[in-house]
Hints:
Elements: E1 2-6, H1 11-22, E2 26-31, E3 46-49, H2 55-65, E4 69-72, H3 79-84, H4 86-107, E5 111-117, H5 140-159, E6 162-168, E7 170-172, H6 188-196, E8 203-206, E9 218-219, E10 221-223, H7 224-235, E11 241-245, E12 251-252, H8 253-264, E13 270-273, H9 288-294, H10 303-316
Helix pairs in contact: 1-7, 2-4, 4-5, 6-8, 6-10, 8-10
This protein binds uridine-5'-diphosphate-4-deoxy-4-fluoro-alpha-D-galactose.
Uridine-5'-diphosphate-4-deoxy-4-fluoro-alpha-D-galactose binds next to helix 6 and strand 8.
Amino acid sequence: MRIFVTGGAGYIGSICVEQMLNAGHQITVFDNFSEGHRAAIDPRAWLEEGDLLDAQRLKDALAASQSDAVMHFAANALVGESMVNPTKYFRNNVTGGMHLLEAMVSCGVKKIVFSSTCATFGTPERVPIDETLPQKPINPYGESKLIFEQMLRWYDVIHGIKHVALRYFNAAGATERFGEDHRIETHLIPNILKVALGQKESVSIFGTDYPTPDGTCIRDYIHILDLAQAHMLALGSKESAKYNLGTGGGTSVREVIAACEKVTGRPIRVVEEPRRPGDPARLIAASDRIHAELGWKPQFESIDAIISSAWAWHLKHPTGYGD
Ligand code: UFG
């Protein structure tokens, strides 16, 4: 298939692009490089540089690509930042997303796979989180993704655009060539690995008084290759659907730090700090629906294997993409 990938220079987008190219698809990457890196774009992909907020440019790029489907990764995705600057999140994730849907209508593209998030659920009534639980975001990031999910429904009803929204839990890990490099790193695993590399003195633990066994937040870390596999299965799905995507396992912040010490063989200095605003205590996925309907199953279920792949990439690329 010919696929138009927004955000294909970002962490998750770049690795999905690599995997889709390996599977024989033709890819056009649309990216404004606000977060992504030129060196993260697989050279086999075609690049259209542009911004989702520039509706005409976006429409022209989509038309030129003659794509059969869109994969929409481009977004701002930091919970903490969204609590300080909600406008950035609604502008880029909602208005930018709307431009993409308009462009799809005008070019007659009838399929979209959307990077949604477990943050649309807020603090869930129970874990694991399945698709029947109410979505009540507790930060503007999650709200912006939920609004786009709701827009998708109407573009299906009115314009017949079929969607698959994948609500990722915590994406982690790397392939040999591509990995996680944010200009401002807020994510737990890369921040711990920076300590192991000697680039940071210590890692902060945000909150040690959560109602969890060791007092730190629990997350469901899913390997990026398992995410990529879900995207490829989603491309083949005929009906619109929304799926939660995680391994079903939960790992606390302290457990992630211990696993990083084990994998790297290096001590990690920690500093305990107050809670970070907008963080729910426990987020774990129930992914039975995507397993039943698309046959998806994660290959990487151990946190050690996920961290090992990230560590191998960081050792090879100690300054990330170097830009
Ligand atoms: N954390 C620390 N220290 C750090 C960084 C994070 O203790 O230096 C804690 C956080 O408080 C959280 C856990 O580690 O409890 C994981 O934090 P991340 O920032 O790595 O990821 P999030 O859980 O915040 O992930 C959320 C959503 C995802 C979304 C992602 C985007 O759950 O769906 O933000 O940034 F994609």
